[in-house]
Every structure is written in structure tokens, then in C-alpha cells.
Design a protein that fits this description.
- The protein has 585 residues and is an alpha/beta fold.
- It folds into 3 domains: 1-45 and 130-155 and 165-177 and 260-344 and 455-475 and 518-585, FAD/NAD(P)-binding domain (3-Layer(bba) Sandwich), CATH 3.50.50.60; 47-108, no CATH class; 182-254 and 356-446 and 476-511, Cholesterol Oxidase, domain 2, CATH 3.30.410.
- Helices cover 22% and strands 18% of the residues.
- The chain has 12 helices and 18 strands.
- The strands form 4 sheets. Strands 1, 2, 7, 8, 9, 10 and 18 form a 7-stranded mixed sheet that branches. Strands 6-12-13-14-11-17 form a 6-stranded antiparallel sheet, covered by helices on one side. The protein has a 3-stranded mixed sheet with strand order 5-16-15.
- Strand 1 (11-17), helix 1 (21-32) and strand 2 form a beta-alpha-beta unit.
- Helix 1 (21-32) packs parallel to helix 8 (262-272) and helix 7 (205-215) crosses helix 11.
- It is globular.
- It binds flavin-adenine dinucleotide and iron/sulfur cluster.
- Flavin-adenine dinucleotide binds next to helix 1, strand 8, helix 9 and helix 12.
Length: 585
């Protein structure tokens, strides 16, 4: 499909860089207010339903759903012992993907690692360069943050508070819930506020058993809060309601778009306003500056296929390329006025980088479910979420902040955790007998935001398009390791309390980056000396520059970030549109 020609003679009201959760939300909010917006996306527009094929059974696929023989994905050990970029030693594989790319259904969605190199410390960096970015394949757990996160410093003295409170963002969380749809059950927890939920999924037998066991310990297990519409959305013709088909468990997205993705949830409706020009295959490599005013004047981008460069002008530049790519773009945008990169007078761009630590967890078997008829547990957009319980009322002696668990049980397309050995008919029988009795869960914990954890530009290595690569200086610290130790112990303790037979306790901490929840590289704050953005994600230095993705986070919390990214983005874009109208930008 030919790309639409961008009108280079025109000054757009806004140019948005990136089309994922953040870029899509910015496009929705700004176009619905009548602004003329250009959305530039580095990747291509994929025939996404053909990629995802959510109804395809593994036996209908020549590779049974796995990668073709000339391609492969990186393993945990490779991330641990091999330093990026992944060059020599990987020649035999024509295509090399991140660990998440180990599937026929996502191989064109995630990037080829060697075309998109990075250097420095080990990091399992998952990127999706295509229209919609990572929202095409996200896990959909859609959680709110609370003042336990926004004002965490008040509780334990560490780091910085956010310049906003829960009450500032609550109306935007509500709007996101109503516009995009979310399933779940109200629990009235001060540290995990409820959303405006559509019809929830049901917990299955083993999950209810665990929930009941936890109640005695004062811990809360709730249905997976999924960014999925279960009742349908009358205002959106591109999305269907979830009708519980089999493949949700499989890596890959939802081809009827019951699960939120940015193109069908936000971008196509924005295009229907007539106010949005979308150009894919457009890699933005610099934010340009008007030297007379010091303001951003537009962006320089390269057509990712023809390699032709373009400059386009806009009154406001909205960066939404995802936390690490946004930092990269700010650092790339060096000029006489901004020698350290645009918006970086504080020196904090790329710093305070944080995410979630993962790995510890437990797998077990519910003995009285062995041999019971299979249940349809694939046909749910998620199992359960076990909410944070550390450092709420009491202080843990060994670490600050908290963690939660994601988990599930029951029969799935690929039987899990059966721990059965053998072959032939007896093996198959064993698998069938055991598979519905499996239950497992893994933890996600807050990684503290630290100035010393950062990314900068590699002075030598460049990507396929000649753009300097990112270099990582990022490691988990003592707090994360002590927290991981506790995750393992509590996981085991909770399964024991529920009466499950424990099959496996995992104490391995996964490589940095595994959570795919990178945050904080241009944090917001009130002090321009220690933060990059103000509370509306507006640059302290350049007033017509906004960075509306996870870069703005002050800390990572332990809750998954995407619903918060979109709610903050909505708030920022409301403010942006008002300021533009008043002539303040
Ligand atoms: C397998 C998986 C499971 C996940 N599960 C969850 C979950 O359960 N809950 C949760 O909250 N989050 C989850 N996430 C994370 C979630 O997907 C991200 O938080 C979210 O997509 C971030 O949105 P974004 O717009 O910042 O970035 P992205 O969605 O990555 O979009 C950024 C876009 O910008 C484009 N871009 C980058 N650089 C440039 C450039 N220079 N010029 C132009 N365009 C550019 C990219 O191509 C991309 O399309 C998961 C992610 C993955 C991959
Ligand atoms: S269970 Fe629902 S959200 Fe998941 S793939 Fe099926 S229809 Fe989509």
C-alpha cells in the first residue's frame, strides 16, 4: 500500500512520534478536539489479522506455531552470558528475535535484533516496530496506580513523589475504562483502585481454592483485570466483544480486537474524524528547533524503506515512541541550543530508568482435579491477579515497595506444567489426566528508580537506518534481589496454605528488561533541575514539546503500566489542546 504523502508545505497542529498505546491515545484526544495531527510510525502497517490468526490450531500450522527453521529467538541463557549486540555466533539464524518472538504469530511484529542493535549491559529489550507497537501483543493486564505509588516517598523516604495525586488522574482512568473497555471485579483496595469494569471473567476451581486460602492470610486474589471489552463498545466499529475463543493464552494478539490494541481502539477512530494523517515507515531521527524561539519546529524523519529524508513542521511535537526510544530521540536531537539533547538541561534524560523484576514463582497441582474433564480455560483473557501485600500497613525489614503475582490454572491449548515423563499412549493419557489440575503464578516487583540506571547513545554502533544505537547502563540492585527472595518464599507459602502439591519453585531472577515495562527515562517533577517534564508531560525546557509515554513515570510501582500511560497521556493532551488554543505554546 502506498504511503500517503505528507503535506510538507503545511504546519500541522501536532506531530506525534509513535503509534503504540501513547501515540494512539494522543491521536485520539487531539483529533477529537479538532486539531490537525500527523502521526509518524517507524514500522509498517501489517495485515494484522493474518499475522495473529487467533483461531488457528497448532496442528493447522506447518511449524506448529513455532518459528521457521532459519529463525530463532534469544534464550534466557543467551541474554545472561552474551553481550548485545547479538552479532557473531548467531550467523546461522537469518532472523533473530527477542525472547518474545518465539512464535509464528508474532515474528513480523517484533523487531529483528540485528537490524536494531543496542549495546551495554544485558537487557531483554522487546520492541514492536509496526503500527500499534507492542499493543498488538500485550498481555492486557490493566491496573491502576494509587497514592501508594504517586506518593511513595512520603511512605518510605525513597526517591521522589510524583507531581500529581491519584485524584488528578482518576477522571482520566475512568475515561480510558469507558472508551476502551476493561473487565474485572471491584475489590475496594486503597492501593489498587477499581476501574469501571465490564463483565468479568470467572475464576476456575483451583483459582477459587487459592483465593479462599489467601483470605485467611489477609491477601487478595482477584480476576485478571484485562484491557478487553467483554460487553462490546457501541462507539467503536472496529472492535468486537470478547467471546472467549481459545487462543488468548497463546503469545500474540486478538484478531477480533476484543483485547485493546492501539490501531482499532484509537487510531482508526481518530482517522474517521478526518483530522489525522498517518504515515507508517517513517522513522523520526531528530526533533528540529527554531533557533530564534528555542521551540521545537517539527521533526526530521526517514522513510524506513526508501531511506529518503523529510522534514515536517508542527506547532507541537508529541513524543510517544516508547520509554527507551523516546529517550533515544531526545538524546539524538542535539543542536547549538540543546547540546546534550533536546529537553535535557537537567541531564536526567535516559536516567532514573526503571521497570519490574520478574522470575520468582511457583507451579503446583490440585490433586482432586487430576483426571477431571477439561474445562475451557484458554477462552479467557487472563486468569488471576494476586495483589500487592508488602509494605502497605507494615514495613518489611529487608526491602521497600511491593510486588504482585499474575497466574492461572486449568486446561489450555498447550497443556502446561504437567511434569509428566514418558512417550506414546500412556504419556498422552498422563498429560490429559493432569493438565487441568495445574496452577502457576509469577511475580512482578517494583524496580527502584535510580539515577545510576540509565541509557545513552553508543558512540559507534548504529542501526540499519544509520541511527546511533542505545547503550544500556542498567542493573537490578540489592532491593530487587532481596524482594525476589521474598517473592519465592511467599509464593511457596501461599500454595502450601491452599493445600496444593508444589511441583516447582522458581527462584531465578530473569534478565533485566524481561517485564517489557520500561519506564522513567524523562521523569516528571516540579523541579526542572531534577526532572525533564512537568506534571502534564510537557518539557520544562521547550514548552511545545511533550513526551507522553512511560518515560514520564517517576517510579515503576508494581502494577503494569499501560492503563496509566494512556490515562496520563489523555490528561496531558487535554492540557496541550487548551494551551495551544490560548496561544501559550
Ligand atoms: C508480550 C507483551 C506483554 C505485555 N503485557 C502487558 C500487560 O499485561 N500490561 C501492561 O500494562 N503492559 C503490558 N505490556 C507493555 C505494553 O505493551 C506497553 O506498556 C505499551 O505498549 C507501551 O506503549 P508505548 O506507546 O509507550 O510503546 P509501544 O507500544 O512500543 O509503541 C511505540 C511505537 O513507536 C514506534 N517508534 C519507535 N521509535 C520511533 C521513531 N524514532 N519514529 C517513529 N516511530 C517510532 C514504534 O515502532 C512503536 O510502534 C506488554 C508488552 C508485551 C510486548
Ligand atoms: S479470549 Fe477474548 S480477548 Fe482473548 S483472544 Fe479470545 S476473543 Fe480475544
Amino acid at each position: 500500500m502506498a504511503e500517503p504523502e505528507v503535506n510538507l508545505a503545511k504546519t500541522y497542529d501536532g506531530v506525534i512520534v509513535g503509534s503504540g498505546a501513547a501515540g494512539g491515545m494522543a491521536a485520539h484526544v487531539l483529533t477529537s478536539k479538532g486539531l490537525q495531527v500527523l502521526l509518524l510510525e517507524a514500522g509498517k502497517k501489517l495485515p494484522i489479522e493474518q499475522e495473529l490468526r487467533s483461531m488457528e490450531w497448532p496442528y493447522d500450522n506447518p511449524q506448529r506455531g513455532f518459528l521457521p527453521p532459519n529463525s530463532r529467538s534469544l534464550s534466557f541463557n543467551e541474554y545472561t552470558i552474551r553481550n548485545p549486540p547479538y552479532g557473531p555466533g548467531f550467523e546461522k539464524s537469518k532472523k533473530l528475535y527477542s525472547y518474545i518472538g518465539n512464535s509464528e504469530y508474532v515474528k513480523n511484529i517484533v523487531v529483528e535484533e540485528r537490524e536494531n542493535p543496542f549495546t551495554g549491559t544485558n537487557y531483554a529489550w522487546v520492541r514492536a516496530r509496526c503500527l500499534g507497537g507492542k499493543t498488538n501483543i500485550w498481555g492486557r493486564l490493566a491496573l491502576r496506580l494509587s497514592d501508594y505509588d504517586f506518593k511513595a516517598k512520603d511512605r518510605d523516604g525513597y526517591g521522589e513523589n510524583w507531581p500529581i495525586s491519584y485524584s488528578d488522574i482518576e477522571p482520566y482512568y475512568d475515561q480510558v475504562d469507558l472508551y476502551l473497555g476493561i473487565t474485572g471485579v471491584k475489590e475496594n483496595l486503597p492501593y489498587l483502585p477499581d476501574s469501571i469494569f465490564q463483565r468479568p471473567t470467572k475464576l476456575n476451581c483451583a483459582e477459587v481454592t487459592l483465593k479462599q486460602g489467601l483470605q485467611k492470610m489477609g491477601r487478595v486474589l482477584t480476576q485478571y483485570r484485562a484491557g478487553v471489552t467483554s460487553d462490546g463498545l457501541k462507539h467503536n466499529k472496529y472492535r468486537s466483544r470478547c467471546y472467549g475463543r481459545g487462543a488468548c493464552e497463546r503469545k500474540g494478539g486478538c484478531d477480533i480486537h476484543a483485547a485493546f490494541d492501539s490501531p482499532t481502539g484509537l487510531i482508526y477512530p481518530a482517522m474517521d474524524t478526518g483530522n489525522l494523517t498517518l504515515r507508517t515507515n517513517s522513522t523520526v531521527r531528530e526533533i528540529t528547533v527554531d533557533t530564534n524561539t528555542g521551540k521545537a519546529s517539527g521533526v526530521l524523519f526517514t522513510d524506513s524503506q526508501t531511506m529518503k529524508d523529510y522534514h515536517v513542521r508542527a506547532k507541537v511535537v508529541i513524543v510517544a515512541a516508547s520509554t527507551l526510544e523516546s529517550a533515544r530521540l531526545l538524546l539524538l536531537s542535539k543542536s547549538r541550543l540543546y547540546p546534550n539533547g533536546i529537553g535535557n538541561s537537567s541531564g536526567h534524560v535516559g536516567h532514573n530508568f526503571c521497570e519490574h523484576v520478574m522470575g520468582p514463582g511457583v507451579a503446583g497441582r490440585v490433586k482432586n482435579l487430576v483426571g477431571k474433564p477439561p474445562t475451557l480455560d484458554d477462552g479467557r483473557p487472563g486468569g488471576f491477579y494476586l495483589t500487592r501485600f508488602r509494605n502497605l500497613a507494615e514495613k518489611h525489614p529487608k526491602f521497600i515497595r511491593g510486588y504482585g503475582f499474575e497466574g492461572g490454572s486449568g486446561s489450555t491449548m498447550f497443556p502446561r506444567g504437567t511434569d509428566v515423563h514418558g512417550f506414546g499412549a500412556s504419556f498422552k493419557d498422563e498429560v490429559r489426566q493432569n493438565q487441568g489440575a495445574y496452577i502457576g503464578m509469577g511475580a512482578f516487583g517494583e524496580v527502584l528508580s535510580r539515577y545510576e540506571n540509565y541509557v545513552d547513545l553508543d558512540p559507534v554502533v548504529k542501526d540499519k537506518w544509520g541511527v546511533p544505537a542505545l547503550r544500556f547502563h542498567y542493573r537490578f540492585g540489592d532491593n530487587e534481589h532481596r524482594m525476589a527472595e521474598d517473592m519465592k518464599e511467599t509464593a511457596q507459602e501461599m500454595f502450601e496454605a491452599a493445600g496444593f502439591e508444589i511441583m516447582h519453585v522458581n527462584n531465578r531472577v530473569l534478565t533485566e528488561g524481561w517485564s517489557i515495562h520500561e519506564l522513567g527515562t524523562a521523569r516528571m517533577g516540579n523541579d526542572p533541575k531534577t526532572s525533564v517534564l512537568n506534571q502534564f508531560a510537557q518539557s520544562h525546557d521547550v514548552k511545545n514539546l511533550f513526551v507522553v509515554d512511560g518515560s514520564a513515570f517517576v517510579n515503576a510501582s508494581c502494577q503494569n503500566p499501560t492503563w496509566t500511560i494512556m490515562s496520563l497521556c489523555w490528561r496531558s493532551c487535554d492540557y496541550l489542546a487548551e494551551e495551544l488554543k490560548k496561544g501559550n505554546l
